[in-house]
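Dear Dr. L.,

I hope this message finds you well. Following up on our conversation about the binding site, I have prepared a predicted three-dimensional model of the protein together with adenosine monophosphate. For your records, I am including the exact sequence and ligand specification that went into the calculation, followed by the structure tokens. Please feel free to forward this to your student if that is useful.
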Amino acid sequence: MSFEDLNLNSAIIKAISDAGYTVPTPIQKQAIPELIAGHDVMASAQTGTGKTAAFMLPALHLLATPSQARSRGPRILVLTPTRELALQVSEAAKKYGKYLPRINVVSILGGMPYPLQNKLLSQPVDILVATPGRLIDHIQRGRIDFKRLQMLVLDEADRMLDMGFIDDVETIAAATPDTRQTLLFSATLDNAIDKVATKLLKAPKRIQVASQKAKLDNIEQRLHYADDMSHKNRLLDHVLRDENVKQAIVFTATKRDADTLADNLYSQGFSAAALHGDMNQRERTRTLTRLRNGGLQVLVATDVAARGIDVADITHVINFDLPKFAEDYVHRIGRTGRAGAAGIAVSFASNKDSAHLSKIERYTGQRIVSHIIPGLEPRVKPRFQSNGPKSAPSVAQKRKRAPFSDQDNRPAFGAANESGRPRSGQRGRPFDQENRGNSFRSNSSNKAGFQAARTK
Ligand code: AMP
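The resulting structure of the complex is given below.
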């Protein structure tokens, strides 16, 4: 199937061709015809599957026909959980809509000045991409007219649920016309998402693309046992000095740790910078631009800030601290292996993380293979062993692997659950999770160096 077969407007096809896309991805193949036919759709698709184009192309196709409604308000509204994702969606809208006449894309995000947003909203808007909290503010102040709204997209609905945005999302949906077409995209479609869909969607077509397991198959997952912080730092240095590392994202548990680690790496000669929720929007955008244009080799990030980052050259993701939730592990490592490329995900863990690792392996249905780097062996013998299902080796695992040849292929223990669903109690974590956690990472702190890295 080609994009031409999807009956999209020719101006959109031209932009897709400029983007270098030759065939639609599975989610695009399935979702686009249903959306053009006017159906509501709920789809399980992770970032990296081409889901943004799956909803943006039909949205732009709608815009190719002028609206009859007498209003200057948005015709398409996309709600996203984070500012970064919203900016990526806006960029995608501009990229795919560049040959359509006068498509005005506006982003309304928390942390940005109100006067500028008021100005943007006073002009005719075609596509509005927003985070829920700030949008509610503008709706309550009567600044948005939804009379001509035709399509509402809930992007990463599972994350909006996790972040406690669902009440806001429902309030926003209630302010839009009943005649709208509603789309819901989520990494997983579970009971909680079904409840949201029942409230907001009408007879939706349900689309499920490649499972998470298949999605991770191009990512080689490695585990390093670390005795303590200094051991983690040495392991990190070793991993980052591998010549195969083009660009890497290192995940920490807290914002403060992200700053300190970026600072340490910078002082060790890496072009490194932090990305987290305490930085203002300008700083974040600047850092992401540097990452995208290759000016930054190592991004040290927290979960919330790094969600949705889509940079093709990220060859490595390193979990300096394991994520709190198994779902976040999948989101984190999905920052590498973009658009079908191979990627490497390295996790550092100590004995106290064993139950946590087992949970992650059950969730992904995949084993994280432990590696030992000669000269950097753990002093403390690991108490735990991989608990993952004996899945077939991934594409990446089958590849000849270079520097870590001494992998430890011990037998799995314990029961493995292929379906690996998160427990319902894992929902609803506090929004400020990244504020908490360890605060002991203070070795060789160099604030000045870090600031230079961040603002360069
Ligand atoms: P997403 O899942 O929306 O985050 O998209 C992941 C990446 O795939 C982005 O870099 C897109 O530019 C790219 N992409 C989307 N659709 C296609 C396609 N049909 N062919 C090739 N790349 C695509």
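In brief: Residues 10 and 178 are 30 Å apart (CA to CA).

With kind regards,
A. P.
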